[in-house]
Amino acid sequence: MRGRKKPDPAEAARERLIRQERQARAAAHARAVADGVAETVALSRARGQAVAEPPKRRSRTVLQPYRRQTGLEWLAAKGRIDAAARSAGEHYGVVYRRAKAEQPIPSTLEVTPGCGPGFTPDLQAVLKHGEGTQVARRKLAEFRRRLWRQADLVAACDLVCGEEKTPREAAGGDRDGARLEAVLKVALDILAAPTG
Questions:
Q1: What is the pTM of this model?
Q2: Which residues contact 28 (CB under 8 A, 6 or more apart)?
Q3: Which end of the chain, N or C, is surrounded by fewer C-beta atoms within 10 Å?
Q4: What span, in angstroms and rounded, lies between the C-alpha atoms of 166 and 159?
Q5: Burial 65-98 (b: 16+ CB within 10 A, else e)
Q6: What is the spatial distance between Cα 38 and Cα 136, in angstroms, rounded to a whole number?
Q7: What value does the mean pLDDT take over residues 20-45?
């Protein structure tokens, strides 16, 4: 075996120690991240938020994220509302968020970064946004009319469907959360019923 250099046992041992130290640091970091995620999830759940577990990992290197569930997703996953009620609630939520997220019509004197002299806002986009907001307001008013403008029914839909909170999170506790869930079920049944 001419020309082949014999491996230095001291160098091999040093490289092995460096590799083991890197693996130990990576494992400690992974444990710290997992502990931090577990603490965050536990605190979120204590506040009443629904957090979906990640799917079981196939490999140790690929971390799957936790996902915050909306109130409607949580209720449907628990079998507490049916598909028609969930669909009605999701439609209410889309309309609610669009009506609530209205933006004022921008001034032509508004300073926009990156736009030089002579910049004019896209009037068509401003008008389209305004028309969409008006449509959302009308639909939201129609939904609320179907709920007889009853404050508890409207508030339940606003909190769970519109703001996407779980009943417990919106009510601030288990007992009041159960009451809010019962009111919401009535509201969703009304909204899911065909209009005639």
A1: 0.75
A2: none
A3: C
A4: 8
A5: eeeebbbbbbbbeeeebeeebbbbbbebbebbeb
A6: 39
A7: 91
